Amino acid sequence: QLIQALDAVNDGISVCDSSGEIIYTNDACLNIFGIEKDELLNKNVDSIMEEKTMLSQVMKNKKSMIDAEY
Description:
Layout: H1 2-8, E1 14-16, E2 22-25, H2 27-33, H3 45-48, H4 54-61
Antiparallel strand pairs: 1-2
């Protein structure tokens, strides 16, 4: 049911595991980036996002956006 809810929203959502590998993405996210699902799934977030993005830094430092200092 959670996946169905995530698939139904218009916001782009991707989920990464603790190593930064993208394990889920919804269609809205794919539309925003203009890419196919196989271009995103099972890729490390650092390989698709610029090194200095907040998400990349959170994944690298393993701190929440609230706790991290940028």
